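Q: How would the structure tokens look for this protein?
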Amino acid sequence: MSQFQTKTSQSWFSRIGGAIKGVFIGLLLFVIGFPVLWMNEHDAVRNTNALKELQGVTIDVGTPEIKAENEGKPVFMTGPAATADILTDPIFGISENAIRLEREVEIYQYVEHQQSETKKKMGGGTETVTTYTYEPAWVQAPIDSNRFENPDARTNCRNVGIMRFQNDDMKATNVSFGAFKFGPEIIAKIGGSKSYTFAPDFQLPQQLKVLGARIEGEYVIVPFTAPATVTANAVDQAVNAVAGNGDANAAGQAVANAVLPNNTTQIGDLRVKFALTKPHDVSLIAVQKGDTFTDYKAKNGKTQFLFRDGTHTATDLFEAKAASNKMKRWLFRFLGFMLMYIGMGMVFRPLSVLADVIPILGTIVGKGTGFVAFIIAAICSLITIAIAWIAYRPILAISLLVVAGGCLYLFISKKKAAAPTEA
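A: Here is the predicted structure in token form.
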């Protein structure tokens, strides 16, 4: 693994300037946190109500049967998603009865990794040491080694190769669900793909063999450089060169080395993996519309379409959807809080940079302002969430306001207690 280091310095005045500019960005991030939290809670309430509404009107049909009395109504069904379509990858010679056939292509390239460590210096400046390392790995796209930070790596770790083949996602166009037919939007929801396993007698197309392609486990390896054609004369020379020493085994190995391609992975090689989605059981809750399905539109305007691979009950689908909504809700709560926290941290940053004239003092001030930023972000987040919920769940809203008030009271109390000590 190649390694290279660079050192950069930043003066105290430059850091002050950057910190002051960051105040404006911090204020913007802090303000953005409010609508993110507000809209998230508003959306969560609407999704919850829509899901409850759907649960109250869903008809449990069971097997996928078209019944005229269910037209335009939300129904629950479970059964096999089937297709007679044959999906074919003509380049690699794969042909299977499947709902989806996916091709994933990667290239072997040198990758640049970097790790930085910044140390404060007396007087407020900083010194950053960045270490660059290089190692080969399978990646999604070619990497331009001319952009490597280490000049020597641009030569010693030079990347070659092109993406001769691209990723592809082939889907069946005719997928049935009992008496129903799935459209492209529903087919796209079907999951359950598994890695494609090559049969022991599988043969790659001749055009790939010419390139030296080989199967290794679940991958097809396509070398960047095809094996050179070996003439009969070249083989004779290899045999005679070794046989002249009387070593028949060595002669045989020489022939093998001359004829067989090199199986060592090289920079620029491609590897191709396939995933197959075979027909299988699925479960759904949606509105019956003719011989297919559409979204359920709740009174508040939110749409719902519940779908899962495998055989499940209607309760399973509702619980899974509720869990998914809950995870999404908490992710956006965390996002809103982090926007506020990072924003306030940037607003207070000039204080710690000013104190960095004495590094240990700057560290102490930085921890203090970080704590204050955390408290402010937590209080503002709780209040925003509580106000958003107050019209829908007053008890929860009041509880959050009480917690926020308690945090604010403790924060002010500590500040007052610390005031005489500082004096």
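The two ends are 57 Å apart (CA to CA).

Confidence is low (pLDDT under 50) at residues 251-260.

Upvote if useful.
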